[in-house]
Fold this sequence. Notes:
The structure is a single chain. By secondary structure, this protein is an alpha+beta fold. It has one domain. Helix content is 20%, strand content 25%. A hairpin with a 4-residue loop joins strand 2 (41-44) and strand 3. The strands form 2 sheets. A 10-stranded antiparallel sheet has the order 2-3-4-5-6-11-10-9-8-7, with helices on one face. The protein has a 3-stranded antiparallel sheet with strand order 12-1-13, with no helix packed on it.
Amino acid sequence: MTSSPDRLAPHTRMLVHPLYLAGPGDTTAIETSLRGTGRWGRVVTRAGPLLAGPCHDVLVAQFTDQDGGWRITQYREPLGMPLWTATFSGSTPAEITTAFTAALDQWLNTADHDHRPISPIGILAERGWESSEAAGHLYRHSPDSHAYLRLSTRDFDEYAELEGRCPAQWTMYAGVEQVNGERWQAHFTAATPLHLIREATLALSSPTPVERPLHAIPERNLPYVTAKPADTTPAPRSAAALARTPHRQQLGTRPPTPPGPTTPPSASPPRGR
């Protein structure tokens, strides 16, 4: 971390990178981004809020009675058999989940469902994430080794995957330690539209810092993130003092042009006697 946290107030707004170690952020944005379109209905269940897509064949549910995580499911028809499922644990950075749901809303609102994007694995390769293989899985690891995207290459039962009886085909993971400390996971079953996983992957590996209050960054992650205060404008008192400084010249302005020579007044004619 670039600034010592001991010298900053807990609510100091920070610009943090990488995203996957920045903490969950504002998770309310996930729901408000969908409701703001006017295309999603909402009900509150015992488990948490539930949003239904325009044709009622897609459900986005938050489980506030558990860890606050999200589950997105598309069905063959309303209340029919599930086609695919994506789950995000409650500590998943909100920008990643929002990238997925925003792309989902756009996909449902267009007649063109013919997407052939670059594979999420390919995106991470272009961004310098390293590749490895182990026990029927292909991995892309972040340069700092604190995050990965895993693709299962094993044969599996589609229904067992949807029911959670075997791992999903795609998994995102991030954490400083795999056993202890702050960590999060996201899972996507095999039939999840690839371009939706792609959008989540772009957010996962984004080089752009995100904003967090200092107290919201997991303490265990502080040594492994780059963070600096987001507000670099001078304090009001300092700005007022600068304004009172004599002979202050603004940057980029031309100095005032000195006045030209003054013409002396003509002598008065002598009075007649």
